[in-house]
Design a protein that fits this description.
single chain, mainly beta, 2 domains, 8-stranded mixed sheet, 16 strands, 37% strand
């Protein structure tokens, strides 16, 4: 009996220890969502990932968080993804990551993180080496178009001649604005993107039910300038109208000094509306001989 008791004691001591599992969700639903820190050389991003969803065989990370389509992406960044179920309460967690997301060949995966207008973040893409060469997240025309919409554009100023908010019936009222082309350079996914920006169209609201669309901003009155070069209009009835102007801006873009190509889409900028009083001239006798 003593010999049997000794064997039983050794068996209990040598029994492998099994880690205790999390208690099951009594509702039968999915595992709780655990905050995960995405840490990389370009900074840090905090997102939400289902701790029970490891990388698939091809290295893809499946993010369980969802973002409403009405919440647009305002910026993107490239980083690595940490698979530790670490707390995001302390920035110290960024320096203690022990498991980075990897691709099928064992190399570190690069992920693209989107920042949404609401402040939410989510992984919106990933990249693994192909044929032995790493494929960084691509600068696509859609990303360029979103970046162009964030470039500050000038608000057009509507200039009218005659000045002082008054004109006459049946004479040319001349309109113009200032819209010089310019260049801006931004950084997108670590690449230099250069925009050549130009106003492509001007839409003039004349206030009496008529509009004009031109490709030129107009010029100021000068004696030697032919009428065809003006943006001009003749009112046929007296009264007060409210003028408006919309400048439509477009751009070409270049990636890292390469050839330029058109940016998809345009951006509209509206001038403040302004009143214009239209008067009817009356002849007046000033001298008689």
């Amino acid at each position: 009996m003593k010999y049997f008791g000794l064997l039983l004691t050794l068996a209990l001591l040598l029994r492998p220890t099994v880690a205790s599992a999390d208690p099951p969700d009594p509702s039968g639903g999915p595992s709780p969502v655990t905050p995960v820190v995405h840490a990389g050389t370009a900074g840090y991003d905090a997102g939400v990932k289902d701790a029970g969803s490891p990388p698939t065989q091809d290295g893809e990370i499946h993010n369980s968080g969802s973002v409403a389509t009405s919440d647009p992406i305002v910026s993107v960044s490239s980083t690595t993804q940490c698979l530790d179920a670490a707390s995001v309460e302390s920035l110290a967690a960024l320096h203690g990551c022990t498991t980075l997301a990897t691709c099928a060949d064992g190399t570190t995966m690069t992920v693209t993180v989107g920042m949404f207008a609401s402040g939410a973040m989510a992984v919106i893409g990933d990249s693994c080496p192909t044929s032995g060469s790493a494929q960084a997240p691509a600068v696509t025309p859609a990303l360029v178009a979103r970046a162009f919409k964030r470039v500050p554009l000038p608000t057009p100023e509507l200039i009218v001649q005659p000045p002082n908010g008054r004109t006459l019936v049946n004479i040319d009222t001349i309109f113009r604005t200032e819209a010089a082309p310019f260049r801006r350079t931004v950084t997108l996914l670590g690449h230099r993107v250069t925009f050549d920006i130009k106003a492509q169209e001007f839409r003039w609201t004349l206030g009496d039910g008529h509009t004009m669309t031109t490709t030129e901003p107009g010029v100021a009155y000068a004696e030697q300038t032919p009428r065809s070069q003006y943006v001009a209009y003749r009112y046929t009835a007296a009264g007060e109208v409210h003028l408006g102007l919309t400048a439509v801006w477009g751009a070409d873009w270049s990636l890292d000094g390469g050839p330029f190509q058109p940016v998809p889409g345009t951006v509209q900028m509206d001038a403040p509306t302004q009143p214009l009083e239209i008067l009817e001239a009356r002849p007046q006798l000033v001298s008689y001989h």
